[in-house]
Amino acid sequence: MFRCPKSHRVSALAGVLVWLLCVHVAFAPAASPVPVNGADAGPPTDPTDMAAMLADPLEDVVAVGGIYGWHCSGVLVHRRAVLTARHCLPAKEVFIGENVLEHGVVIPVVEGRTPGAAGPDIALLVLERDAPTPPRKRLKPERGFTPIGIVRFAGFGAREPTGRFGYGVKHFTDAPMSGWNCDPGRAALFGCDPDNEFVSIAGLGRDTCSGDSGGPALLATIDPSTGRNAWILIGIVSRAVASSTSVCGYGGVYVRTDIHEPWLREQIREISTQRRVEP
After folding, report:
1. Over pLDDT 90: what percentage of the chain?
2. In angstroms, what is the C-alpha Rg of the chain?
3. How many whole angstroms separate alpha carbon 263 and alpha carbon 260?
4. Are strands 148-155 and 216-223 parallel, antiparallel or unpaired?
5. What is the pTM of this model?
6. What is the rounded end-to-end Cα distance, in angstroms, of the chain?
7. Which residues have C-beta within 8 Å of that of residue 93, sequence separation ≥ 6?
8. How far is CA 77 from CA 100, 112, 167, in A?
9. Residue 68: what pLDDT?
10. What angle (nearest 5°) sits at the alpha carbon of residue 94, between those of residues 90 and 277?
11. At what angle do helices 47-54 and 12-27 cross, to 10 degrees?
């Protein structure tokens, strides 16, 4: 709910998060490597590189618009594909930039795809042309993997508790994460699906709000292709927890992208073979 605009990314909060990550690395027991798009990584280990990771410009996070205007968020997973929430459909276009009221790149959506007629709250938007921004790397399926560390939620959503005001400016919030938090015992309380979703109950308003739907949940880890600290995609914003007493700020439910990675890879492979020739 209460998030940092991009212009204030490297702040006191960033310093605190660097300290927390250092403490986590120094004192936490050894954890299983984090599988990223087919490769194994791990938690951030280089404090000197953490500032750069925390200052990630999140250029791959987009606003999603329909016939009534901009209303959701999303994240590029291919130059011509945006992952978002199913309930954000139908979608007409996506916006790449910082503020939907200012200059940015607008790309029409030619198709919206979902994993089945009635399924999880996740959808893939096929774009008319390539986006100028590289896509986000994703967590691959790995049995028994448990996310532990810092998670970053990003989007263009509202920025006050009622969820009615503030949509349109890209922002993010960082919160600690320890597990998926959607086991069968908590499913009824939070209103989540243990087979497809996870929950974040960070408190202090550190979650998502109206308009953030479809935006990414990113876990701090190491990119195995570069050896540098990075944020990888582990989920998509869906909704507030069932037990929430406010529209925003009391916990959120997120669709796990690793569960749907086989479907996503199939869609991206098909899109890649149907690439349009730019004029």
Report:
1. 51
2. 17
3. 5
4. antiparallel
5. 0.82
6. 42
7. 64, 65, 106, 107, 108, 109
8. 21, 14, 23
9. 86
10. 105
11. 140
Q: Is 95 a residue whose pLDDT tops 90? A: yes
DSSP 78-119: ETTEEEE-GGG-S--EEEESSBTTSS-EEEEEEEEE-SSSS-
The tokens for 71 are 């209303």
CB atoms within 10 A of CB 228: 13
pLDDT digits (tens, 9 = 90+) for 237-247: 999 888 877 66
Query: How far is residue 162 from each of residues 62, 167, 217, 245, 265, measured CA to CA in Å?
Result: 22, 12, 22, 11, 37
The secondary structure of residue 240, as a DSSP letter, is E
Average pLDDT over residues 46-71: 87
User: What's the chain's average pLDDT?
Assistant: 81
The token pair that represents 108 in the structure block: 């029409």
Residue 214 near residue 153 (C-beta atoms within 8 A): no
Q: Please provide the DSSP assignment of 179-229 as one string.
A: S----HHHHHHHT--TTTEEEE---TT-S--TT-TT-EEEEEEEETTTTEE
Please check whether residue 58 is in contact with residue 172, taking contact to mean a CB–CB distance below 8 angstroms.
yes
Among residues 139, 154, 155, the alpha carbon closest in space to that of 265 is found at: 139
How far is Cα 244 from Cα 248, in angstroms, rounded to an integer?
A: 8
**Please, are residues 169 and 5 in contact by the beta-carbon 8 Å criterion?**
yes
Query: Rounded to 5 degrees, what angle do the CA atoms 35, 36, 41 make?
Result: 60
The H-or-E segment that residue 151 falls in is strand 148-155
pLDDT of 29 over the 80 cut:
no
Write the pLDDT tens digit of every residue in 105-123.
999 999 999 998 888 999 9
